[in-house]
Specification:
This protein is mainly beta. It is 13% helix and 41% strand. Strand 4 and strand 5 form a beta hairpin.
C-alpha cells in the first residue's frame, strides 16, 4: 500500500514488514524515453564538495540500485526500536534486496527484480519506467531540497539533505547520504508540525561494491483501470500501477494507488458483506499512518471506501470524501454516502 522512491527502496522493504505494505516505484512519466541508461561506474568518481542538492539526490537514486552491500540498521517508530539486517545485490541483471528483523516477531521481506524488456544481459531494468532524473524533477516540483551540511552517521561522513514540502498536505524528510557512495544512511519522516514521526538509520554499512554493468530503464506498467477514483488529490499525486507483487486481493476489492514520487496513498473499495465486520466510518490511527473510512451506497449496495497512507489525517479524509464511481457511462448513485450526503463537488 505504501510506496517509496528508488532511493529508499531498500529502506522501504522494512516498512512493508511493519505495515503489511507493498513497495514499488512510481509509474512511467509522460514523454519519458524508455531507453535511458546509466553506467554504474560513473558513481566511482568524486562528486566534489560543491555538488548541488538535486544532483546529490539523483546520484543517491542510482546508488541505491548500483551497489552490492550488506548493512545493520535500526528503525525507531510507533512500535519502539527494531533492529534489522539488510542486503542488496545485483547479479547478471537481477536485483535482489531483503530486510530481516533481528528482534521481536521473526519478519523477513525479500524483493527481486529482473532485466527490463529489450535490454541486453547484464542491464538492470526498472519496471517502474521512471528514471531518477525525471523523478528528481517531479519531487522538486512539490518539495524544497535544502542546502546540505556534512555530518557523521554510522562512523561515516554523510551529507544531510532536508526535503521540505511546499504545502501542508504531505510530510517532509531528512536524509543523510553517505559521502563516498551516496547510499542513504539515515532517514527521518517529519510531520506537518515539525515532529519526527519515524527514524530509520544504518548503524553498520558493510563492504559496498559497485555493479559493473549498465542500468537501463524498462517500460512502465499502466495504472489500475478501476472505475473508482479520487476526484481530489494534493498537487503532484498521480495514479500508479499496482505492483505485480501485491498481496492477492479478493476480486470484490478495487484498488487504486497514487504517489507524488516520495509518498504513496492507497484507495480500496469493497462491498460491505454481511459476513465481514465493516470498519467504522471516520479516521483510524495505524502507527505513524492514518486510514480514512467512508461508507457509500453504490447501485443500492453498501460499499466501504478505505484511503490510507503516510499523509496527514485531514488529507486522507478529504480524498475519501471525493471518491466516486466513473466508468464513462451514466453515473450511478455511488456518490451518495450512507448518511445521505453527496460526494459530488
Amino acid at each position: 500500500m505504501f510506496r517509496f522512491s528508488p532511493w529508499t527502496s531498500w529502506i522501504a522493504v522494512l516498512s512493508v514488514a511493519v505495515a503489511s505494505a507493498v513497495v514499488s516505484t512510481p509509474s512511467v512519466a509522460d514523454g519519458l524515453a524508455a531507453s535511458e541508461t546509466f553506467d554504474c561506474g560513473d558513481l566511482a568518481s568524486d562528486p566534489g564538495s560543491d555538488i548541488k542538492p538535486a544532483a546529490l539526490f539523483e546520484r543517491s537514486l542510482w546508488a541505491s540500485h548500483c551497489y552490492n552491500f550488506g548493512a545493520r540498521a535500526v528503525r525507531i517508530g510507533f512500535d519502539g526500536v527494531r533492529t534489522l539486517a539488510l542486503t542488496h545485490s545485483i547479479e547478471e541483471g537481477i536485483e535482489t534486496e531483503s530486510a530481516r528483523f533481528l528482534d521481536g516477531p521473526p519478519i523477513a521481506v525479500k524483493k527481486r527484480g529482473g532485466v527490463g524488456q529489450g535490454t541486453r544481459k547484464g542491464a538492470l531494468g526498472f519496471s517502474s519506467g521512471v528514471a531518477p532524473g525525471e523523478l528528481t524533477r517531479q519531487i522538486a516540483a512539490h518539495y524544497e531540497l535544502q542546502p546540505m551540511a556534512l555530518e557523521r552517521i554510522a562512523g561515516r561522513p554523510a551529507w544531510r539533505l532536508d526535503v521540505e514540502p511546499q504545502d501542508g498536505l504531505r510530510y517532509g524528510y531528512r536524509l543523510w547520504l553517505d559521502r563516498d557512495t551516496a547510499l542513504p544512511l539515515k532517514r527521518e519522516m517529519i510531520g506537518i508540525e515539525g515532529q519526527i514521526l519515524e527514524t530509520f538509520q544504518i548503524t553498520d554499512l558493510q563492504e559496498s561494491k559497485l555493479y559493473s554493468g549498465t542500468l537501463r530503464l524498462g517500460p512502465g506498467l499502466q495504472p489500475s483501470d478501476s472505475p473508482w477514483h479520487a476526484q481530489w488529490l494534493p498537487a503532484g499525486f498521480t495514479a500508479q500501477p499496482i505492483p505485480p507483487e501485491s498481496p492477492d486481493q479478493s476480486a470484490r476489492v478495487d484498488h487504486r494507488l497514487y504517489s507524488d514520487g516520495l509518498t504513496s496513498i492507497s484507495l480500496f473499495v469493497e462491498p460491505m458483506a454481511n459476513d465481514r465486520r465493516a470498519l467504522l466510518a471516520g479516521i483510524h490511527r495505524l502507527g505513524i499512518s492514518y486510514a480514512a473510512v467512508r461508507h457509500v451506497i453504490h447501485r443500492g449496495r453498501p460499499m466501504q471506501i478505505l484511503v490510507l497512507g503516510e499523509a496527514p489525517a485531514e488529507v486522507l479524509a478529504r480524498i475519501a470524501s471525493s471518491v466516486a464511481w466513473d466508468d464513462g457511462n451514466t453515473p450511478s448513485d455511488s456518490d451518495i454516502s450512507a448518511d445521505g450526503s453527496s460526494s459530488r463537488r
